[in-house]
Recover the amino acids of this structure.
């Protein structure tokens, strides 16, 4: 019996190849898109859920100024000590800092090789007591107990020592020897802790009480029954009580952030890793459900459209003895056959699409992890339940149709679907318009960000990491001599115009260097505005053509500059300090808390605010600090982590690069050269926006394809249903144009109604997304009109093509057959 019904099912699917192909393609696209997007959202929602004590771990977020603005992930080094002493409900406290040693990393020597590490932290001994899930070998309360201890990830242990047992091995940082005391698991990619090595503090500086600057990340474990809000209030009161001793604490505020919320929360300043956007994640999840629903709806629409063409068939089957259960089984088998043909195609599309998204960095490889199995169970359940309901839908119609009446009269009066089909199409048009609007608005925002004046020029500039800043293994004198020789040899070639060193280059994070410790006099209140500090040499402004508004740049010949008594401020920095103009600030001394005390610095120059980082970030006032000074031991250069090389205008870049490589090999033959063009590095900051636009374009294509497939099915059915009417109209003189309008005009009304419903939704979603940008476009009406026009054109073209083919048929042939 089943074999017979399957044979009939495949025969019917083959005889209706157009509808079958539309259904298969629609289901395959819907399933593939759902799987891709569900994988992405499951991954994003899984961050830090792997910790066994995830419900107990909180990060302490600091708001240095009143009003809970400018939140930072770092806080005062004295905060952890205070929490340990005065908050007994706290089980464990750990403080650590990401090692920003000159070049935002640290050089280590092991097995006769030097390894440069950026994913390394210095921590309290309690790190693995707060994060016990991360530790593989060793005891959580022991591995960091002794000074000069270090724990390596599995990957780093193999890199340093191969297949040897790393426990007890010695690693040097150039100043002291570190003993490997434990091995931790490679940090999962769905963790905000992007680290490879954990070591103890190199000295006791961060173990002392201190409330002047924000240095450390502080995490605590609290019993889940505790009240975080009450804890925050008490902590704020205790800290603010220190305001008489530390004026900067008068308005400090704090917040406990659950570890599982960090990744989907807005980015804080000094964040460990880049966070995702919660609104975007849930929106993409909604798109996934919407697209698979559209695929199901398409199949249901086709079922309705073709159902009455089968009324006579079903009537005869019923007349010869088939009951409703037999008919329902037949229809379910037909859907199952469609589904089984669509599923392999969906898997193929998923694999190909996944490879693209993985290469673009949008999602991790879907084949490696499931992240949160319970989420995938939900997704599979939704897929199965939706498919079953879709397959059962035609059976609901059977119970409402008088099949014997259909056989006797040949009418199609049971359930016409005239209300259902337009509603479904309208929903598909709404989804398509919203997605295309998203692509348009995202593209406009990206164009706006990239076209805004940065007040600097990054073209023709090559950036390299300065090898003399890599390590403590070389003396200061060697570093200086090597760099000066490198710079001199580079400038000997006419293809190279300027060379400058700095602690950061445009397009890269400025790093740990920021301060609120600057004011005009000690009596002035502390300005809560955080200013970025960049260590530069005398050629930095010239290399990047940053406008100097007043004064001069640093000089290697000026003793005040070399004796750390000069400073340069950005235009916004002097306004925050109360100077009315750039010229008025020149020559004035300001109090600057550079190290451990307030010192006097003369303002020697004011430069125009430039976008060191992209316009995605909130711009900070900035300070330029001379990276060269003279101490008791002679000349010294600090924080010259990067070298910027400006190619002469009109020179061949390949000539400059060849000279760079030759010069590098002459001085550092054992060190690899890594270089990049600064304009390309800067453009990489918009990578996430580019991927997002590409992804939305793909999803928009899928949505409009599903909608058009629905239009094809419905138009084809209606043209077949109205063949007699079309023939009579042609005989009576109607033109092909009039007949095309007869079929297509309802789509115009549907799209206009859909546009009215989609526009406010698109606006609200776009407005919410744009809130993450300090610089954003103004939403214009035409941005929402373009998707409507595009959808209208595609629908009318699709519907009109099918109608045109059938309207061109000789009416005599049609009426003769009817």
């Amino acid at each position: 019996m089943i074999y017979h019904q399957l044979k009939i099912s495949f025969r019917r699917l083959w005889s209706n190849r157009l509808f079958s192909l539309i259904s298969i393609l629609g289901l395959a696209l819907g399933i593939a898109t759902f799987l891709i997007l569900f994988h992405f959202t499951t991954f994003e929602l899984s961050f830090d859920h792997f910790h066994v004590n995830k419900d107990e771990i909180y990060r302490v977020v600091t708001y240095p100024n009143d009003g809970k603005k400018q939140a930072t992930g770092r806080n005062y080094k004295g905060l952890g000590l205070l929490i340990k002493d005065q908050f007994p409900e706290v089980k464990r406290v750990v403080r650590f800092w990401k090692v920003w040693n000159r070049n935002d990393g640290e050089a280590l020597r092991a097995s006769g090789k030097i390894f440069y590490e950026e994913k390394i932290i210095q921590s309290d001994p309690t790190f693995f007591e707060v994060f016990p899930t991360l530790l593989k070998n060793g005891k959580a309360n022991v591995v960091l107990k002794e000074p000069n201890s270090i724990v390596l990830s599995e990957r780093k242990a193999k890199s340093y020592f191969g297949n040897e047992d790393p426990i007890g091995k010695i690693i040097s940082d150039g100043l002291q020897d570190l003993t490997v005391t434990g091995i931790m698991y490679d940090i999962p990619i769905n963790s905000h802790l992007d680290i490879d090595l954990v070591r103890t503090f190199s000295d006791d500086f961060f173990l002392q009480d201190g409330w002047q600057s924000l240095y450390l990340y502080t995490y605590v474990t609290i019993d889940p029954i505790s009240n975080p809000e009450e804890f925050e209030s008490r902590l704020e009161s205790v800290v603010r009580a220190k305001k008489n001793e530390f004026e900067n604490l008068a308005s400090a505020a704090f917040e406990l952030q659950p570890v599982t919320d960090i990744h989907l929360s807005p980015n804080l300043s000094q964040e460990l890793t880049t966070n995702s956007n919660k609104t975007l994640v849930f929106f993409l999840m909604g798109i996934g459900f919407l697209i698979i629903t559209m695929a199901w709806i398409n199949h249901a629409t086709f079922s309705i459209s073709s159902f009455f063409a089968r009324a006579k068939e079903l009537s005869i089957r019923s007349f010869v003895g088939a009951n409703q259960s037999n008919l329902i089984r037949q229809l379910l088998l037909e859907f199952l056959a469609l589904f089984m043909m669509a599923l392999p195609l969906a898997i193929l599309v998923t694999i190909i699409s996944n490879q693209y998204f993985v290469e673009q960095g949008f999602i991790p490889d879907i084949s490696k992890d499931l992240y949160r199995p319970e989420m995938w169970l939900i997704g599979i359940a939704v897929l199965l339940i939706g498919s079953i309901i879709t397959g059962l839908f035609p059976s609901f119609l059977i119970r409402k149709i008088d099949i014997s009446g259909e056989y006797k009269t040949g009418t199609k009066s049971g359930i016409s679907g005239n209300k259902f089909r337009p509603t479904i199409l309208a929903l598909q048009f709404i989804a398509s318009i919203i997605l295309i609007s998203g692509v348009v608005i995202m593209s406009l925002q990206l164009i706006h960000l990239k076209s805004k004046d940065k007040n600097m020029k990054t073209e023709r500039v090559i950036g390299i990491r300065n090898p003399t800043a890599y390590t403590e293994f070389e003396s200061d004198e060697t570093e200086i001599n090597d760099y000066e020789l490198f710079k001199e040899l580079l400038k000997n070639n006419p293809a190279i115009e300027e060379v400058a060193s700095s602690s950061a280059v445009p397009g890269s994070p400025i790093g740990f260097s920021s301060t609120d410790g600057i004011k005009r006099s000690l009596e002035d209140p502390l300005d809560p505005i955080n200013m970025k500090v960049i260590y530069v040499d005398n050629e930095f402004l010239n290399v990047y053509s940053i406008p100097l508004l007043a004064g001069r740049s640093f000089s290697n010949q000026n003793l005040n500059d070399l004796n750390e008594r000069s400073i340069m401020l950005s235009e916004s920095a002097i306004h925050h300090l109360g100077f009315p103009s750039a010229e008025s600030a020149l020559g004035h001394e300001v109090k600057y808390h550079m190290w451990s005390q307030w010192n006097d610095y003369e303002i020697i120059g004011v430069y125009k605010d430039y976008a060191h980082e992209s316009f995605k970030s909130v711009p900070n006032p900035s300070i330029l600090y001379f990276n060269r000074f003279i101490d008791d031991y002679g000349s010294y250069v600090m924080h010259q982590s990067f070298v910027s090389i400006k190619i002469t205008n009109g020179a061949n870049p390949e000539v400059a690069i060849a000279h760079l490589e030759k010069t590098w090999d002459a001085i550092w033959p054992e060190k690899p050269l890594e270089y990049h063009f600064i304009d390309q590095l800067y453009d990489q900051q918009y990578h996430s926006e580019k991927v997002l636009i590409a992804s939305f374009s793909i999803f928009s294509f899928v949505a409009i394809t599903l909608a058009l497939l629905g239009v094809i099915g419905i138009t084809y059915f209606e043209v077949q249903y109205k063949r007699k009417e079309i023939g009579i109209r042609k005989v009576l003189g109607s033109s092909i144009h009039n007949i095309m309008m007869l079929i297509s005009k309802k789509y115009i009304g549907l799209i206009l109604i859909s546009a009215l419903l989609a526009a406010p939704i698109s606006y609200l979603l776009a407005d919410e997304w744009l809130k993450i940008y300090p610089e954003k476009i103004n939403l214009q009406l035409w941005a929402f009109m373009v998707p409507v026009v595009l959808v209208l054109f595609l629908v009318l073209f699709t519907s009109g093509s099918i109608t045109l083919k059938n309207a061109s048929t000789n009416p005599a042939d049609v009426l003769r057959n009817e």
Observations:
- The longest strand covers residues 90-98.
- Residues 450 and 471 are 36 Å apart (CA to CA).
